[in-house]
Automatic annotation (TrEMBL):
GO terms for cellular component: plasma membrane. It catalyses: ATP + protein L-histidine = ADP + protein N-phospho-L-histidine. This is Sensor-like histidine kinase SenX3. Keywords: Cell membrane, Kinase, Membrane, Phosphoprotein, Transferase, Transmembrane, Transmembrane helix, Two-component regulatory system. InterPro entries: BphY/WalK/GraS-like, HATPase_C_sf, HATPase_dom, His_kinase_dom, HisK_dim/P_dom, HisK_dim/P_sf, Sig_transdc_His_kin-like_C. Residues 126-349 form the Histidine kinase domain. Pfam families: HATPase_c. It comes from Collinsella stercoris DSM 13279. It is found in: Cell membrane. GO terms for biological process: cellular response to phosphate starvation. PROSITE patterns: HIS_KIN. It is a multi-pass membrane protein. Coiled coil: none annotated.
Length: 354
């Protein structure tokens, strides 16, 4: 706190002595004292008041300065009492003790919420792993049932129903996978390994993992120019690409539907050099008004409200995980023509150690 600010805030401590000095000078003059005596009396009273304010400022300046510095520079406000020394005057001590009490209560609440979040995350991860077992068993039983279907008209109808059931099981498995990655997205550092991977392999793995979805929607995948190597985590990137593939399949427009994966090197030789992977489909796209919100959690837009069973979680997770890994992501679209998502991989390896 500056001296001028302190004096401004301490005006009652100066105004009252000044009024008292004027009154004393008036009484002295009325009592027969000379004007010089009255002036000296005023100077003594006002000077004492000013000296008291200056001494008070000197005593409080250190505490105020530390407090102001912490407010501007501290990384977390809840640590403020650890960075400021307790003052030696009554009102400052009371304020410091109150601040410390509030800080302790807030830290306790934060610790409790973190513990609850950790317990919930571990529960979700355990539940996902447990839920995968009956799903795997259901897939196996479904395959056995499909092999036992007779080769006649009744068998064809039964085979179509079993295939539809398989697609629904895949959809359930996809939702469970979303829950797992959503829970893990808060603690990416525990399950994150950066290595060099070819985009050809990453895209190929994602396409194979979602082959049934693509075939069910009659979407043809194409890979163009994926000869670049990027630094990322294989498992997380496969999931991200899988979400984009599933999103494209969900909004495919009948025959001739396709999804194209292309890559290119951007800003070569500059500090912003990066490799961009574009996932482009010729589906229904989104409107210009919906485009800025496609990565918002729970946002489904006009297309998602027309029987597509959209959850608004897939693209939100794509954006969230890309942000966690330090990748850029953006969307482009034209309603009724295409939808494209572009992921940028920085080529500077030091980026991943920041």
């Amino acid at each position: 706190m500056k001296l001028s600010q302190f004096i401004t805030s301490s005006w009652p401590h100066l105004a009252l002595p000044c009024l008292g000095a004027i009154l004393c000078a008036f009484i002295a003059l009325v009592g027969g004292a000379s004007a010089g005596v009255a002036v000296i009396l005023c100077v003594i009273i006002v000077g004492a008041a000013v000296a008291g304010v200056l001494l008070d400022y000197q005593r409080k300046r250190s505490f105020y300065a530390d407090l102001a510095a912490c407010i501007d520079d501290i990384e977390h406000p809840l640590w403020i009492t650890e960075m400021v020394d307790g003052p030696d005057y009554l009102e400052g001590r009371l304020a410091y003790d109150a601040l410390r009490t509030v800080s302790k209560a807030a830290n306790d609440d934060v610790s409790e919420y973190r513990r609850q979040a950790q317990d919930y995350r571990e529960y979700v991860e355990t539940w996902v792993h447990e839920a995968k077992s009956p799903l795997a068993a259901a897939h196996l039983m479904l395959e056995n049932l499909m092999e036992a279907v007779p080769a006649d008209e009744t068998g064809e109808r039964l085979l179509g129903k079993t295939e539809a059931l398989g697609e629904e099981l895949d959809r359930v498995e996809g939702y469970i996978e979303q829950a797992l990655f959503f829970a893990r997205s808060e603690s990416l550092d525990r399950d994150y390994l950066i290595r060099a991977y070819g985009l050809q392999k990453l895209v190929g793995d994602a396409v194979r993992a979602n082959a049934r979805v693509l075939m069910g929607a009659h979407v043809s995948p194409f890979r163009v120019g994926l000869d670049h190597t990027v630094f990322t985590d294989e498992k997380w990137m496969t999931f991200i690409l899988g979400q984009l593939i599933q999103n494209s399949a969900k909004y495919a427009q009948g025959e001739g539907a396709e999804i194209v994966f292309t890559s290119r090197l951007i800003d070569e030789g500059r500090s912003s050099e990066r490799i961009e992977l574009e996932v482009h489909d010729n589906g229904c796209g989104v409107s210009e008004s919906d485009l800025p919100r496609v990565f918002d959690r729970g946002f489904t837009g006009d297309n998602g409200r027309t029987g597509k069973r959209a959850t608004g979680i897939g693209l939100y997770l794509v954006k969230r995980l890309c942000d966690k890994m330090g990748l850029t992501v953006r969307a482009d679209s034209r309603a009724g023509e295409f939808f494209a998502v572009t992921i940028g991989f920085p080529t500077n390896k030091m980026h991943y150690f920041e």
